[in-house]
Design brief:
Blueprint (H helix, E strand, L loop, with lengths): L19 H14 L12 H8 L3 H14 L2 E4 L3 E4 L11 H4 L13 H6 L28 H14 L14 H14 L9 E4 L2 H12 L5 E6 L3 H9 L3 E8 L2 E2 L1 H7 L5 E4 L13 H14 L2 E5 L24 E6 H4 L7 E4 L5 H11 L5 H12 L2 H23 L8 E2 L7 E5 L6 H10 L5 E2 L12 E5 L5 H21 L2
Parallel strand pairs: 4-5, 4-7, 7-8, 8-9
Antiparallel strand pairs: 1-2, 3-10, 5-6, 9-10, 11-12, 12-14, 13-14
Helix pairs in contact: 1-3, 2-3, 6-14, 7-14, 8-9, 15-17, 16-17
Length: 496
């Protein structure tokens, strides 16, 4: 064996956050792999290395033994420890070594489907500020009865039975599904039983599951135009061929959809509160949509995301309530009604699809976490949910009234749509104002709005802004409108 003198290779700063043994092993291993310690090079004695880096000698001896077992070093009694001569001439080349350093790579390693899925419309970092005028789709978290929720959660944790700690049902916690079925029957006109309900984390998860189970890649599906970007991107990521169908104040234009693609396999719709325009699907179009689905053997995915919040009368009945042929998959979200971090939603599937959806759910993530569902179940069955929704309906309605009154200050710059529902509303801009430019200007003034044009799928959308009003109080609405007015004036001065 070659007995070269020890090469004085720096191992970097001594161990700080890592355990000493792990630090020394990683530093020596890196020095050997990168060639800073040559094959056959003699390592210092365990005593010297321990003294140099302030380590216990036993730690160094243990590291030498570990590296010897991995094949990086060899030892001989009375001679010392040496870097193995049987190592390859060079370390394995990684993809970073192989690519052209000047080449630009995006989404390295992702498949075509993976790259499609990475096109998210949602922020990838936690939102620092909770209530900002006029963030869309945001409920008022200050008004949520957090102390009550905490008591229910503590009680559930304290009295939890072993059944809650074991393997759950892929469809979700049955008492919660029973509570949801009872609520939908009384509040939304949807007749179903607990076996038809799946508890999911979000509308996105429900739609992704439906798209993959009901459509093969390349098969067509109708989507409203304009439409919720989250739904559009989920369907595209599933390989669905999107067929944009015009939507207006009366919802999706079924006749136009039949002209463009009569044999679509699915239609994604928001009939109670169209995203982003705010209109509801007319009764005539509801019957036309159902008749199309029955005649073509197609499916309808009904996203009923915030229909409970209607301020000029009782909520409209769900499209699912008219479905006598088992064509509608109905989805709603507790995260919109209660608080975003809850991450609980529900999907009602026709009886013929129950087994397939339950089996697929068990494959992709087994079953949803149970304890949070149990707390929500108590919140519903003890009457807190219904009281909270009634209180929020009154609160949000008053805030929409404040917003309507305050928008008069923006006469000639912004006109609110007539709809009176949901957590947000569209404000129409003069045609000469680019709504994306207006969004950027508003952000500079501390206001968060969305451009209607960002919801467009194929057709150009009118210039407008989506304003969330539910999470901000009257004072914040007034201040926000002043900031928005300043931003719009700047835009109009730049683009007369």
């Amino acid at each position: 064996m070659k007995r070269s003198r020890f090469q004085d290779v720096s191992l970097g700063v001594g161990p700080r956050e890592r355990p000493p043994s792990r630090w020394l092993a990683e530093e020596l291993r890196s020095a050997i792999i990168e060639g800073r310690l040559a094959r056959g090079a003699r390592l210092p004695s365990s005593r010297d290395l321990a003294r140099q880096y302030g380590l216990a000698r036993g730690t160094v001896v243990g590291v030498f033994e570990h590296l010897r077992s991995e094949g990086y070093v060899v030892g001989k009694v009375g001679a010392g420890t040496f870097v193995s001569t049987n190592l390859p001439d060079q370390r394995p080349l990684t993809w970073r070594d192989r690519i052209n350093p000047g080449a630009r790579r995006t989404s390295v390693g992702l498949s075509a489907r993976g790259r499609q899925m990475s096109r998210t419309c949602f922020p990838r970092e936690p939102v620092a500020q909770i209530a900002v005028p006029f963030r869309a789709y945001q409920p008022d978290l200050d008004a949520f009865p957090l102390a009550l929720w905490s008591r229910l959660a503590a009680r559930r944790q304290r009295l939890a039975r072993r059944a809650l700690l074991g393997v759950g049902d892929p469809r979700g916690y049955r008492p919660l599904r029973e509570a949801v079925a009872a609520y939908l029957g009384s509040a939304r006109g949807v007749t179903c039983d607990a076996d038809q309900i799946l508890i999911v984390s979000s509308v996105q998860q429900a739609l992704d599951l439906a798209a993959r189970l009901l459509l093969d890649p390349g098969e067509p599906a109708w989507i409203e135009d304009p439409a919720y970007p989250g739904a559009r991107l989920v369907l595209e990521a599933a390989g669905v061929k999107l067929v944009p169908v015009p939507a207006d104040a009366h919802g999706i234009d079924v006749a136009a959809g039949r002209r463009v693609c009569p044999r679509a396999r699915l239609a994604y719709v928001t009939p109670a509160h169209q995203v982003p325009l705010g209109g509801r699907l007319s009764l005539e179009r509801r019957f036309a949509l159902l008749e199309w689905a029955y005649s073509q053997g197609a499916w309808i995915f009904e996203d009923d995301y915030d229909s409970e919040f209607r301020y000029d009368g009782p909520p409209f009945a769900a499209l699912k309530g008219l479905d006598g042929g088992g064509a509608v998959l109905y989805c709603g979200s507790f995260s919109k009604m209660l608080f975003p971090a809850l991450r609980l939603a529900y999907l009602v599937v026709p009886p013929a699809l129950v087994d397939g959806f339950a089996a697929a759910r068990s494959l992709v993530d087994r079953f949803p976490p149970v304890l949070g569902q149990a707390v929500l179940c108590d919140f519903i069955t003890e009457g807190h949910f219904a009281r909270h929704v009634r209180a929020m309906r009154e609160l949000y309605g008053s805030r929409l009234a404040v917003l309507r009154g305050g928008v008069r200050k923006l006469s000639g710059m912004l006109e609110l749509a007539p709809e009176s529902a949901g957590l947000d509303i569209v404000g129409w801009l003069p045609a000469e104002i680019n709504d994306r430019v207006a969004v950027a200007a508003a952000a500079q003034h501390g206001v968060e709005v969305r451009a209607v044009s960002q919801y467009a799928v194929k057709r150009p959308a009118p210039s407008g802004l989506v304003l969330g009003f539910a999470a901000v109080n009257a004072t914040e609405i007034d201040t926000g409108l002043g900031q928005l007015a300043a931003a719009l004036r700047e835009v109009m001065e730049r683009h007369p």
